[in-house]
Every structure is written in C-alpha cells, then in structure tokens.
Amino acid sequence: MLGKKKLFMSGISLIVVATGGFGAQAEDFIDTLSMERHALAGPPSVPSPLELLLADPYQQFDDDSSLSTTIGVESDVANANKTVKVMGGYDGKSNAFYTGAQAKLMAPGVVMLFGNRFVKANDYKDANGDDVTFGYTRSTQQVMIQWKPTPVGTFRFVGVRDVIEDELQPHHSMDVKNTERLVGKLSYDQVLEGDRLTGFSVDLSSRNVEREPDNYSNRDNSSVKMRAHTERHILDGKVNTRWDLGSWSTNAAVFGGWDNQDARRYNDTLGVVNTIKVPDVTRKTVGASLDGKRSFGEGWGMQLGMRYDLIHADPADANETGDVPSGATGAAAWNMSPASLYRSYYGATGDLSRTDNNISARMRVTKAFMDERFSVFGDLSRKVRSPDNIEAYHAVTHPQAINRWIGNPDLDPEAHHKAELGMAWKGNNYVDYGVMGPNADGPFSSENIEVKLSGYVDWVNNFITWDRAYGQSGVNLSDGALIYRNVDALFAGANFEARWNLTNHWSATAKVAYLWGNNDSDDRALYQIAPLEANFLLDYQGMLASSGTWNVGAKLRLVSDQTRVDEDMTTALGLDDGEGKGFATVDLYGGLQLSNRWSLSAGINNLFNTDYQEHITGTSVASATRTKVNAPGRTFFVRSQMNF
Amino acid sequence: MLSRRKFLGHSAFGIGSLAVSGLSTSMLSTPALAKIKDELTIYGPPAGPSIALAHLAQSGALQDHVGKVQFKVWRTPDQLRAGVLDGSMSITGTPTYVAANLYNRGINVRLSSVVTWGLLYLMSREGKVASLAAVRGKTIVMPYKNDMPDLVFRAMASKIGLKQGRDYKLQYVGTPMQAMKMMIAGDAKMAVLPEPAATGAQMQGMKNGIEVTRALDLQKAWGSVFGGRSAIPQAGMMISGKLLTEQPELVSAFNNALVESGRWVSNNPTSAAKIGAAYLGLKAPIIERSIPFSHIDVKSGKQSKAELEKFFVVLKGMSPAIIGGKLPAGTFYQ
C-alpha cells in the first residue's frame, strides 16, 4: 500500500506525469520508497495539474481512493485546447466550496502552465445527522514551464505552493493550524545521437515543509496550551545516463540528497519548549543505480537492476533539552533530551549518527502472447529502506511514559524480498475506459476488455515496526511508551482490475484489492492494514445531438470487515481502533458538457445514507491514537467548469 | 493500427494517391452492390473529417433503418477503388473530383454531400504571407504531384499569373509527412499541407522550438483568386446508385445524421478527437487542434452543386481527365 507520505514524496512526479506534454519522467526501476507497508500518515498529496480542476476536496474520513467515481464528460472541458480554464463546485462529503483556475501559454519550444485552487471545507453531517467537526482552508498554486532550446534538449521547471490552514482533527488532541509546502523541481534532458550513449538527464528538486499543530487555535482549551512546529527541507539531485549496449537499453544513474528536519513542541502557556521532537536531523544520501532491459524475441523480455544507497543521518540537537522551569510539574521528564531518551529505551550511547549501506536489486521477466494482447510477468526484488527521521530520531517525551514516542537510532534497515506474479489482457478494441476501438464485435467480446491481475508475497527482514515498550529484545524499558524496533514481517496481497466497454456508450469497471500483513516475530497482525475492498462502476455516455455529450454512472463500494487488527495497547501497539466493520455504499453521478466549453457535473454520494467508518481513517496527522470518525452521510455534489 | 507516419501520408483526405491515371478502364464495369439489411458499413479516408462518420456510427442515428452501423477506414486508394467496384463500399468518403470521375466513367455512384470545404494550408517557417503572390521566388514543398494540393495550388498560381519554374518552384515529395519533416529539419521553408498534417507540423515545430506558421489559408486564397466563397468543396460522401434506389429512406437518414455529426465534431473537438484517435491512430491533441481548420460543414450534393461545378470547371481547365472529361450530369448531385 502506498501511504499518503509516499504520495507527498512523489508529488512532483505525479505532477510531471499528469501534464503529459511536459514529458513524463520514467520512474526508478528500483524505488526504495515504494514498498509494502501499513497505511502511513501525513498531509494529503500535492494536487497534480489535472487534480487541480477535477479532484474532489480532500476528505480524510472517507477514503474512496481505491477507485474514484468516473470523472465523465467534464474531462473534455478540462482537457480542451484552451488557454484559460476555471472551475467551481460544492462537495457535500467535505461540506466544501472550492474553485480552481488554470492557464496555459504556448510558444515555439515553450509551454507554461499556471494553476490555482482554493478549498474551504467545513463541519459535515454523518449518517445519523450529527455534525462532525471537520474543516480546513487550502490554497494551491502551481507553475510549470517547459523550454526546448534545441530539438534535443529540454528544460523543465515545476513549482508548487500548497498551504492548508486550520485543519481540524476531531480525533486528535491537536488541530493542524498550518501546513505549508513549497516544491520546486528543475530538470534538463538531452538526447544524444551516440552509438552507445543515447542521452542524459539532470534532475534537481527542493521541497520545504512547515507544519504547526496546536491544541488551542481552533478549539476551546482552558488547560495547558501546546503547540508543535516542524520544518523540513529536502534537496535531491540525480544524473541519469541512457545507453544502448547491444541488445540492452540501459540506465546508469548517480544521485544524492540532503534532508534536514527539525521539530519542537512548545508549552505556550509557560512559553517554553517542552520537547525536542526531531532534533535537527540531517540525512545525507548518495547512491548509484544501474538497470537495463532487453527483448529476447517471441514475446520474452527482461529487466534487471541494482541500486546502492549510502545513507548517513545525524541528530545534531540530540543533547538539547526542553526549558520547562524546574518548579513546573514533571519538569525533569519534560526536559529529557533525545539522547537520554534513546539511551534509556535502547541503550544507544556515544555517536548517535547512523550510516547505512543498502544494496537493492530487482529482476522482472515478461512474456507476451497473442500479438501482445496478453502478457504475464514475474517480478523478484530485494529492496532495502533505512529508517526515516521519525523512526530513527523522534523524541517526544512526557511525564507519563505511555505518552512518549521515541525513535530508535539503532534500527537496522528493513529489507523487503518480494515475489510477484501477474497477468494483463488488453483486447484490440479496448482503447480507454469509455473509448472503444473501431468496429467492436458485440458487447461480450474479450476484445472489449482490459484485465490486470497480480499477486505477491513480501518477506520483510527487520521490518521497522511501531510498537510499545514491553522490554522486548533491544528495548530496555517496559513502560508502554511508543517505540520502534525491528521485527520480521510478511505481507501478501492481490489486486484485480477489469475494465469493460460493453458498447460505445456503456462501460463497467471492477476493482478488488486485498492486503494481508503480519508481524511474524510477535505473531500478531500488523496495524493499519486496509480491509478487503471491491469497487464497481457502471457508466453510460451519450451524445447531446450536435451540442455535446452527457454521462451518468453509479459506483458500488464494498468494504469487508477487518478482523486482523492490532488493538491492544497493553500487550501490543494498539494503534487500530478495534476491528474494522464492513460496509457498502452507492454513489450516483452524472454530467453534461456543451461544445467542450462548459460542463456541469452533479451527484449523490452515499445514496442510502449508510452509517460507516473507514478502518484507515484520519491519516492527515501521525498519531498514536486512531479514533475512528464517522464518515459523511448522504451528500450531494455539484461542479461546473468553463474554458476560454 | 495505422501508423502515424502512414496516417499523415494519406491525410490529404484521400487526395494523395488517387491519381486520375489510377482510375483504370476496369472501373467502368458496373459494381455489384451488396444488399444492405441488418448491417451497414460506412467507409472513409484516414483523415480528420472521417471522425464525423465515426460519430455517426456511434450515435445510433440510423438505428431505425439499420441493425448495426459500422465505420471503417479505407487505408489505401486501391482499397477504395476495389471496394467501390465490388460494391462493398456503398457509402464512402472520397475527394469530390474522384466521385465525379467515377460517375462520368459510368460507375453507378452519386455524390450525396460535401463534408469538408477545404483543409489545405501553405505552411511556412518565414511567417505569414499576405497573398499567394508572396510565393514568387520561393521553393514550395508539395506532396502528391498532380493531385489535389498540387492541382489547387497550381490552379490558383496560374490564375494570378505565376508560372511554375519561372516564378516559383515546386519540390515534390511523396507524402505530407515527408514535407513536414523537411520543414522541421530546416530543409524546406514552405510547404502545402493538408489537415491534420498542417497542425501536426505546427505542433511538432512547437515541440522542437521551431515556429511553423499557417502562412496562408488556401481556402481563403481560392475565394480571392476565383471569386465567391472562401471554400473548396474538397471531399464528400459518395453513395452507390443502387443503395439510393433500394433504400432512399436510409440514404436520406444518413444525410441528415451526417449533418448533425459534422456539427457535433466541429462543436466538440476535444471529444471528437478521442473518437478520432481510436479510429485513425493519430494522437488526439493533433486531431483536436486540426478540426477547426478542417472546415467540416456537411451540405448535400444538391446544395453544393453550384460550388462543385465551379470547382470542377477549374480542375477541368487544368486537365479534363481529372473529372472524367466533362461536368457530371445533374443526377450526380444528391
């Protein structure tokens, strides 16, 4: 499962891919960020240019991201070759009003795209008619520029500013007063006509994140006023060279990164720092990768790769302490330094920096049949991930041990060993969802269908698990504090997706996802594993005489119970808020567009007003509590777009 | 799937390789038209205006007359010739002069409508030009020698007193794609291109940092040179006489539906491009951008008769064989 943090980290590549004309960057063959994990927490992903106009407002208590409802004909207004596009709408799920605008300017060799989106979300009603505390204000600006000084050279720049203010967290002790992200990426790609060296690219990126939750700006609080402030700045660079080596098409890359994160928690009643949350951690990475692919004829293909990461992390302020006055309650506990916490819980002493040498490798074999309509693949990989700044150095102290949250500098990197098998079918008459190829032979032809099916097993050595201190091996205390430790874990999963164009007008989709995760060392279920989920879409698209098009559709979402949970915080982690209870929802939606210039979309979500809670819910903030919040009841949405 | 290269190679709406000389005497035999009952296949060239035909097939507009309507692209002029002769292509898109030529040679066909009123452009790397006279002293790359782009261009140049070889030079190439490549590579400054190759050249230039200008709309130039509307009745729908006799109500419904589909395509270029990409194998953004320049406006043969005859007279003046030696009789225009 791809967590929201991963989505944020990949925000730029999402942006670049979504722009199409800006030239999509190839994903790393060995991506050591994308691994099987429990659901992660973090701010929502940065919107891509397409999401700027078409995405629903972010709703952390209603996660329908597995398969969103069909966007429908309004996408033809959003994608039209027009200079300016504007959008406005209301979404009852977030009780949000939102607007967006985008402008594209083109000149020979130059494409510029500017975008803006604004969302104001408010309390919503659950299926019982009760108000659920919710809301935020979000403002996003995007700039993208592509310049080709020569036919074989391309500069690209992407800049994004995304600010979320007053994000209410009814399930946590703090609301997020402010989240601000500034992302910039500059790249250059050169195509060469060499016999062997065929091109190179240089990528530089900068990401700044500031986040500030507190417990008093957006809620009544007569008790102690607490606030946290996090700053993170990440610089990444990569040089990739492309080679034709005989029958191998090869990429050889070197890369590096600098990542600094600092976080403090404040007692604003006393006006003091009471926790060195993340002690000015600097993480430096250098690495290299080599991967290549080739065909062997008769449909056989192979892709091989290796990757090396050298990662050094250092907590510069590990010995710093809070400055709670000695007379205050629990002052000694509040003023424990990160170093003393690491020492107490893990016995970590001396130099707290850490260096990892990670070697990853991957092999993928494909075989295509039937004029490449049908293909199967096998994928074997070993991917190694070092602990992140939180897992290694988080240091939230508290007089009550159960409220402490302590990273572990002595963690080993986790090593995933994944085996995956899959197949794909794409019939000759399946062009895209809702777009049939010419002259399909009846609705039940296999040529009208696209099917993807895969299954995998991922054995993880030294999986970095969140846990509580019970005096486990490598953990010196048994006080119930939140800690990190290495365990062996096993993930297994399967994904199925079928898209079917019955006619030029009718289309249907089925998507099923299942993930199973187990902490083998402790013989218990892993926390925050999404339950089995199946989604179904049925869509109809019609013509409006000579004026435009229209569409209607329905979505059925089936979520099963999740009985494999980690809910006991006296013997395990207890991050899951009980077992997940299955539910089913139905959404209805439709839209029309005229002359590719104006569209109106509307619909009803949760038609039968089902009372439900997501098992993975409220993931905007990382917290030891996972109190479930009621999802929205029956709501409606409406959205209109225009272009000029 | 038709390759992009091949598509652009044939993108002159079938004008390209339909050399008049290719219409052999074997075509004079009476075609054996298939009996249309439950199924009708509409054919069209691998060019943008065919999207209207694809839309018509998808729209269900003929469901009262035909059980199943399909649209197919004819890939080569040979396919078109063979299909018309053996009767399998009872409704097909074609250059208007080809329909006239077949009719005059005794093939039982009619022109039911004009679909596009010209999609030819003088493209340049040297900016816009005020009139056709600006090509004096220039070398122009021309696809399809002795076919529509060439004939139209030379007819206009001759009318304004420009003589090929003396006042301007033509460099002939096989396909619009070749001409487009020469422009992007800097080997040519000017070319006459049909849509969507003209738009393709602009987009390719845009992508490579090269400004390719739509220097002159040859439809407007045609109006200026010969008088009348700025339009060239370039291509339309050819219908077998047998189908017209046996199922006039179907032909009538087809003509009416095609008017609606033509409007839909012109009104909804983004949506139409998705359909077009599926049928034509070209990237949707090129199709989308080419539609406004393809002058799709479906008018019946009868409505278009005056402009068609005016057009045919010009072609006949260059070589009577182009239209089969004479102007078609009135029954040709439906």
From TrEMBL, chain A:
GO terms for biological process: siderophore transmembrane transport. It is a multi-pass membrane protein. It comes from the Bacteria. Keywords: Cell outer membrane, Membrane, Signal, TonB box, Transmembrane, Transmembrane beta strand, Transport. It comes from Cohaesibacter marisflavi. PANTHER family: OUTER MEMBRANE PROTEIN C, TONB-DEPENDENT OUTER MEMBRANE RECEPTOR. One of its GO terms (cellular component) is cell outer membrane. GO terms for molecular function: siderophore uptake transmembrane transporter activity. This is Iron complex outermembrane recepter protein. Residues 1-26 form the signal peptide. Pfam families: TonB_dep_Rec_b-barrel. Its main location: membrane. It is found in: Cell outer membrane.
From TrEMBL, chain B:
NCBIfam families: TAT_signal_seq. This is NitT/TauT family transport system substrate-binding protein. Gene3D superfamilies: Periplasmic binding protein-like II. It comes from Cohaesibacter marisflavi. SUPFAM superfamilies: Periplasmic binding protein-like II. PROSITE patterns: TAT (PS51318). Transmembrane segments: none annotated.
